[in-house]
Amino acid sequence: MPLRCLLILLLFSAAADAQVLGGKNTYAFLDLPASPQITALGGMNVSQQSNDLSLALLNPALLRPAMHTHLQVNYAGYFGGIRYTNAAFAYHHRGLATTFATSLQYTGYGQMTHTDAAGNVLGTFRPVDLIWQVSASRRYLEKWHYGAALKYAHSRYLTYQSSGIAVDVGISYQDTARGWQAGLVARNMGGQFSAYAGEKEPLPFDLQVGVSKRLQHVPLQLSATLHHVYQFDIRYADPAEENIAVSNGDTVRAGGTFDKIFRHFVLAAQFEIGQYVELTAAYNHLRRRELALLNRQGLSGFSLGVGITVSRLQLRYARSWYQQAAAFNHLGINLPLNQWMGLGTFGDRIGWKPD
Fold first, then answer.
1. Which end of the chain has the smaller Cβ count within 10 Å, N or C?
2. Is residue 244 part of a domain?
């Protein structure tokens, strides 16, 4: 019954008013990769199930009891001097048979000069974006999980401020015997409480589905994630390129059915070296096609990551290329607090085992 209700909600979400892409919605910071693991996976992954808490920020159904008392802190040096930090914590309540998590993400754009229309300097200001998220996940039968997340977003740019709320709902499936994993999530359903100025704008809604496969005889896991599955053509029509037509006053790119399909895909692979090292690589075709320079594409759309995972510590680093000369770095640490200190019934370091 819970899965049936969730599927109905996901289907209705596909008809949400926020079915628009970049440049036509607000709160784009909701789609920033929160951790090095997400960055290394190409910016999105809704199916891969591991002991990394940050993956539950993409699909709340990926929250697991094994993440009990995990504390994660991530830091990204983004483009143009932008810096953002994400901190997350998970807790499994055995009485409710539910895993909860909360996270806080802060994006700072540095100090900017405040001028009037004539260019006179009036002072300085620091624009900021903030996301607070609360998530919960439960198991259904043996192989299914379902979850939901509530997000509060606040943004302040000098005298312009806005706040809003968004909801993510998702399901996940795991067949450990065969190594198959799958996930489905509707992200950023909601709206603004207050607009920056004038009319309220839609949030960056997305409907994503993904599948992952862990190979039996090779320590390798492959993933494929499809985003914006409710809209076939998600290409940006650049008037500077060839094959541009004008229809009803809008620019439209002609042809390229395969390219239209492949822009929905993010492909990733994660290779385990021994028990403690993970290497991750991913390719985001939409990012490469829309951000790479025409004659100097380089590694645009690719991302790489390395992780060191032991029982008491996870350290991760990732680098993602948007253009040949434009990439950003991401660092993160994950600490299972119940393995580091005695927390009584809160953590129960000795003898506690996940469901």
1. N
2. no
